[in-house]
Design brief:
Chain B: Residues 298-308 have a biased composition (Polar residues). Chain B: Keywords: Signal. The complex is a heterodimer of chains A (158) and B (308). With 158 residues, chain A is mainly beta. Chain A has a domain at 38-145. Helices cover 11% and strands 37% of the residues of chain A. In chain A, strand 6 and strand 7 (129-138) form a beta hairpin. Chain B is mainly beta. Chain B has one domain (4-105, 182-305): Immunoglobulin-like, CATH 2.60.40.1930. Helices cover 6% and strands 43% of the residues of chain B. In chain B, the strands form 3 sheets. In chain B, strands 2, 5, 6, 9, 10, 11, 12, 16, 17, 19 and 20 form an 11-stranded mixed β-sheet that branches. In chain B, strands 1, 3, 4, 7 and 8 form a 5-stranded antiparallel β-sheet that branches. In chain B, a hairpin with a 7-residue loop joins strand 19 (274-284) and strand 20 (292-305). The longest helix of chain B is centred in the first third of the chain and has 12 residues, at 4-15. The chains are: A mainly beta (158), B mainly beta (308). The interface between A and B is medium-sized, with 17 and 15 residues.
Chain lengths: 158, 308
């Protein structure tokens, strides 16, 4: 009996992946001046429709009148598709920029099953910008793609 | 008369009409059109030149620049300065939505006879009589110091000896009054956050831009639809010129000329990402000024077309 809460907790941690998991790789770059990239991850219904932002990583710690949002529009595809209508910071969506490495992002559990285009866009200060898109079937599909410059492998799995 | 008319036309073209008798184009170049910050400014270059957006000819005066905030109220330009080849000014974008920045100029010019002598109307020297109008006359003092190009229209102080500033100044005994009204707009749009439409609402006066695709929602791989109106009604058969900036980095000018359809609409397919200068002119006889046989209208904007 006493284990029940732990089981529930355990399942709560394990099941956010119910709608699938996105894995994003930020490559380590050998450049003189490196800043962690701004990254946006979003889904668009395959047949068109409003985009749903899954994650935005930006300089949320900046203070003053300019709370790090000034360069969000450099994620230009995301900004146009949905970023500009999102209030920042966005609960459960926005977070700090990430160092090079591989990150997994669970898709929201209330995501309706269907075919989507998964988009990952990265833009780096004094660096480049890249958009990686791949079709995904939620929840049972899988797929992978890779960026060439600002992003490494991007994959979707159950 | 014959010698005056071209000078007059050239002067007016320089001040108000980008694609008039002179091929020079008047342009506003914003540093940014899509803004995500909450404390952002846009800085704008304003000039008159042939190639876009190379400031190599004349600064555009900033006296007539008006700012319309996203809620439709008037804003202001800051830090205006005039260089040899271009002016600059800033606008603090302290409200979310789409801002409009630019000029709206109306002018009446022409000729008449008085006691057998030729006179001109609208060749202004010094400050404009109706300074509040923000018309091209605001350029007067600002342009005074410009050097005259060799053989150019601006031969030093070439003002005709006999001229009056406005239609109201035409003496009672004047005959052969021939007037022409010009209405020109040159405006840019800058959006903070989500695009809004308040500043895009047509006023019903003269030639206006009625974009179906929001001018700050363009992308190179999607065609854009723009409609043009004259006095609030769709204007068919107008020639719309689009010129991408940066000609010196390629061989062709790359200009497109499109004609508005019966619904006043054009569909633009972008050849490449970049900043584009758009200009359309129209002439009709529906001037609101008495004795003005002709009404010349011009609309100019600068559009940013991002890469997909």
């Amino acid at each position: 009996m006493r284990t029940t809460p732990f089981l529930l907790l355990g399942s709560a941690i394990a099941t956010p992946a119910a709608a699938g998991t996105v894995t994003v790789t930020i490559p380590r770059l050998n450049v003189a001046e490196y800043h962690r990239p701004y990254v946006a991850v979003w889904l668009e219904p395959e047949g068109g429709g409003p985009a749903r932002t899954i994650a935005v990583w930006y300089d949320i710690k900046k203070g003053g009148n300019e709370p790090g949002t000034k360069w969000l529009s450099d994620l230009r595809a995301w900004w146009r598709k949905g970023g500009r209508s999102l209030k920042m910071p966005a609960d459960g969506v926005s977070g700090a920029t990430r160092a090079p490495g591989q990150y997994t992002i669970p898709l929201p559990r209330d995501l309706r099953p269907g075919n989507y285009i998964l988009n990952v866009e990265a833009a780096r200060e004094t660096g480049g910008r890249e958009l990686v898109s791949l079709p995904v079937a939620v929840p049972n599909g899988s797929g992978k793609a890779s960026g060439r410059t600002e992003l490494g492998p991007v994959s979707f799995s159950r | 008369m014959k010698s005056l008319a071209p000078r007059l036309l050239a002067a007016v073209a320089l001040l108000a009409i980008p694609a008039g008798a002179s091929a020079h184009r008047q342009w506003l170049l914003p540093s940014v059109t899509t803004v995500s910050g909450t404390d952002s400014w846009v800085t704008v270059d304003a000039a008159v030149s042939n190639d876009l957006f190379d400031p190599d000819h004349m600064p555009m005066p900033t006296g007539g620049i008006k700012v319309t905030q996203p809620d439709g109220s008037a804003g202001e330009i800051r830090n205006a300065a005039q260089g040899r080849y271009r002016s600059t000014f800033d606008v603090q974008l302290d409200k979310p939505g789409t801002w409009k920045i630019g000029t709206f100029a109306t002018n009446v010019s022409g000729t008449f006879k008085l006691n057998g002598e030729d006179w001109t109307v609208g060749r202004r020297r010094g400050p404009p009589p109706g300074a509040g109008a923000g018309g091209p006359g605001a350029a007067g003092p600002a342009m005074a110091g410009r050097p005259a190009g060799p053989g150019g229209p601006g031969a030093p102080n070439a003002a005709p000896a006999r001229s009056v500033a406005t239609v109201a100044d035409i003496p009672a005994g004047a005959t052969d009054i021939k007037l022409s009204e010009s209405i020109s707009r040159n405006e840019i749009f800058v959006t903070v956050g989500e695009p809004t439409d308040t500043v895009l609402r047509p006023t019903g006066k003269g030639l206006e831009f009625d974009p179906q695709t929001h001018p700050d929602d363009l992308v190179a791989d999607e065609p854009a639809k723009f409609r043009f109106l004259i006095d609030g009604k769709p204007a068919p058969g107008l020639k719309v010129t689009l010129v991408p900036g940066g000609k010196r980095f390629r061989d062709e000018e790359g200009a497109q000329e499109l004609t508005t359809g019966a619904d006043g609409m054009i569909e633009v397919k972008w050849a490449m990402p970049g900043m584009y200068w758009l200009n359309v002119t129209a002439t009709d006889a529906r001037s609101s000024t008495a004795n003005a046989g002709e009404r010349r209208m011009s609309y100019t904007t600068t559009l940013e077309v991002p890469a997909p």
